[in-house]
Amino acid sequence: MDTYIAKVNYNNPEVNDEVFVKAASIIQNGGLVAFPTETVYGLGANALDPIAVKKIYKAKGRPSDNPLIVHISEKDELYGLVDCVSEKAKKLINFFWPGPITMIFKKKDLIPMETSGGLSTVAIRFPKNKTARYFIKKCGTPIAAPSANSSGKPSPTRASHVKFDLNSKIDMIIDGGHSEFGLESTIIDVSGNIPCLLRPGSITKAMIEDVIGKIEVDKAVFGKLDVDERPKAPGMKYTHYSPCANVIIIRGNAENVIKKINYMTEKNSDKNMKIGVIATKQTKSMYICENIIVIGDRNNPNEIAANLFDVLRKCDYLEIEEVYIEAFDENDVGMAIMNRLKKAAGYNIIDV
Ligand code: AMP
Ligand code: MG
Fold first, then answer.
1. 151-166 confidence digits (pLDDT tens)
2. Which domain holds residue 343?
């Protein structure tokens, strides 16, 4: 049976109250509801119900050791779910919540091990998106929600992406339009003495350091780990964000990048392979490729971030087999963009 999709007015969710009454009843009965947030769409279940939470892993095909983020609708709900909130964590909460940053704390026993992926810590997020908060509040329970995609695929930034991956596997999708930021939340571990960035996002390292001073960055953020190394966020070890196409990043000065991409396009077109190029507004007219997808303005990293997953999904839609993309600067939001892009490319980067 097709999954039920309900459109809502994302600025005024209360006008669609009946949609949220239905969604809350699904959650209270142990079902799954996908909902919009300012980062990406989440696949929600009652975070305190281990049987409901297990359904999330099954629908996504997600490994059971990859913990879920627990979403709350009021700041103070945090204190009922976790132990030991440090002074630095409190500063981050006051400054950035509600917003696209997830924090890792020591968990209380009421959070089931199914939700925390077997860990003694739990990830908590207080989203800014009005629809997300109206939904969580209506459910009357914290909501465990990873991104609402099939495991390994690009995260969903539109209800249509969720439908494509999970139709008939989940009970309902709340359609609240396009996600504002388009990259998953920043994750920072505040359960130890020194806060550590586990996943970069639109709240950047520099923005965090402005509030609490120097933080550590987990090595997994920058690239592939050695076989005997483990990332601190279990999810960072899995392949991610990959379209079916083989993604190759070309890095260097603009002129060399364009030359290399055109050379590779010409060379591989002979092989009867469908080639694509992900270009920026500044470079789109310089490629010889027939399939050019524009990701946005090179000088506007927030636009690139918001479009990244949509563009990767377009590659599948166009049945592209190999796609070349220009690298971006790794400063600020660029750190998050390149983190996702490197994973989508399986760390396949050509320096020119
Ligand atoms: P997703 O919601 O699909 O973006 O995935 C959640 C991310 O948060 C994954 O990379 C998880 O590994 C990470 N995560 C969730 N809980 C924890 C935790 N307790 N400690 C470290 N990382 C976590
Ligand atoms: Mg995910």
1. 989 999 999 999 999 9
2. 246-351
